[in-house]
Design a protein that fits this description.
By secondary structure, this protein is of the alpha/beta class. Helix content is 17%, strand content 35%.
């Protein structure tokens, strides 16, 4: 189920350079969201017609609170960064397919996030902790330099930074290899080069790997085909080897897509 709501801003704060944490009060969306899904957020400036897709960082069913963490990427997200407590904002969601958390049962799990792909790993970490089904959970987080959201993870975190200011100097795969870690299942979200490298790594190591793709979207409901990715199977909607990231994704089994 997806809903269109007028949510209320409960909190807005800058947690990194041009990276903001936005907490919204919702009626239904927070209670329906699962890790890996996203919402479409509409600007109050009516000259910006298209919504901005933002991954869900945290969702609390009991309180109805929804937390979104985003980076300023244009005028729409810049408007969101200027919200004040009590403001109203139109959102639609939850959208897309989330991570198949049942695949983690009794498995060693990597939660891998790069840059603004880190926020959805927070909700996934909390959900796996509540389930208590995974044998072991490790977050592997890649940053350019400045770190954020580390305090929101309950599992062990391995850090990689491009400039070597913290953790392993390099990328998330460098951090995994440096620490000699192994996993049976990978859940990941981040920039395409990182996901491409993880896809190759997982296939070489025989690891089940689920990737959440970051794509620009227009409608967010599968009608416009602006967010397609190459797939190994034919899409029933378009009749070509494409998958719509907003509806069939954003989470895909790595062997089902081409990057």
């Amino acid at each position: 189920m997806k809903y269109r709501e007028q949510a209320t801003v409960l909190n807005i704060e800058e947690i990194g350079k041009e990276i903001f944490s936005l907490v919204l009060q919702t009626r239904q969306i927070a209670g329906e969201a699962v890790p890996g899904q996203f919402v479409s957020v509409y600007a109050n400036d009516r000259s910006r017609l298209l919504p901005r897709p933002i991954s869900i960082c945290e969702a609390d069913e009991e309180s109805g609170c929804l937390r979104l963490v985003f980076r300023i990427a244009g005028e729409g997200t810049r408007e969101f960064s200027r919200f004040e407590v009590g403001d109203k904002v139109t959102i639609v969601g939850p959208l897309g397919n989330g991570f198949p958390i049942e695949r983690a049962e009794e498995k060693r799990v990597f939660l891998i996030g790069g840059g603004i792909g880190i926020p959805p790993m927070v909700q996934l970490d909390h959900t796996l902790e509540e389930m208590g089904a995974a044998a072991d959970v490790t977050a592997v987080l890649g940053f350019r330099d400045e770190q954020f959201l580390l305090e929101d993870f309950s599992c062990e975190c391995l850090i990689a930074t491009e400039d070597g200011s913290a953790g392993t100097r390099g990328n998330v795969l460098d951090a995994i290899r440096e620490n000699g870690r192994k996993a049976d299942v990978i859940y990941a979200c981040g920039p395409t080069p990182m996901l491409r490298a993880l896809k190759a790594f997982a296939e070489a190591e025989g690891i089940e790997c689920w990737l959440s793709l970051e794509e620009k979207m227009a409608c967010g409901i599968g009608a416009c085909l602006s967010c397609v990715c190459r797939s190994t199977e034919m899409d029933e909607h378009s009749q070509v080897n494409n998958k719509r990231v907003c509806t069939e994704g954003p989470v895909f089994l790595s062997t089902d897509i081409e990057l």
